[in-house]
Design goal:
By secondary structure, this protein is an alpha+beta fold. It has helices spanning about 25-35, 45-50, 60-75, and strands at about 15, 20-25, 80-90, 100-110, 120-130, 135-145. Strand 4 (about 100-110) and strand 5 form a beta hairpin. The chain starts with 15 loop residues before the first strand and ends with a strand.
Length: about 150
């Protein structure tokens, strides 16, 4: 069995751009995600409701967007990392049929000695755009690299 990739603290260079991640949102995924997270707001599954409220169709919920941000971060760092902090701002919506385009960069690394054990932390800035290159969600993520 192949071992999981582990990011080496010494190999992390600030600043570094992360690989772009693209995710296409079909109608079924938008509905399934909101149902899986028990988010039954009609704008996530009822296109007529969404249109009556000024949207083109149904749109992903906040947890879907936050999960995509986490995917970009932990996809880079691997399974020996965890999200210690996340801050997202929602500037626009992602609709069924859209693509989410994530672009991130490493902006800092530090050792936190405030607790019982020192923690290796990596700070990332991740911007999520739609397929029209419109910024919909700027985010800040701090990852803890696990021993």
């Amino acid at each position: 069995m192949k071992p999981y990739r582990r990011v080496s603290w010494d190999d992390i260079v600030v600043p570094t751009d992360l690989a772009e991640v693209v995710d296409t949102l079909d109608y079924q995924r938008v509905v399934m995600n909101s149902g899986a997270t028990w988010d039954y707001f009609p704008g996530h599954f009822d296109p007529e409701y969404a249109q009556r409220h000024g949207h083109s169709t149904i749109f992903v919920n906040t947890m879907h967007t936050a999960g995509f941000v986490d995917r970009i971060a932990t996809g880079w760092a691997g399974p020996y990392s965890r999200v210690a902090r996340r801050k997202v701002s929602l500037l626009g919506s992602f609709y069924a049929g859209d693509s989410m385009v994530g672009r991130g960069r490493i902006v800092g690394k530090r050792v936190d000695t405030a607790g019982d054990l020192p923690r290796q932390l990596v700070d990332l800035e991740i911007d999520v755009y739609n397929q029209h290159d419109e910024l919909c969600c700027p985010a800040e993520v701090t990852l803890e690299l696990l021993s």
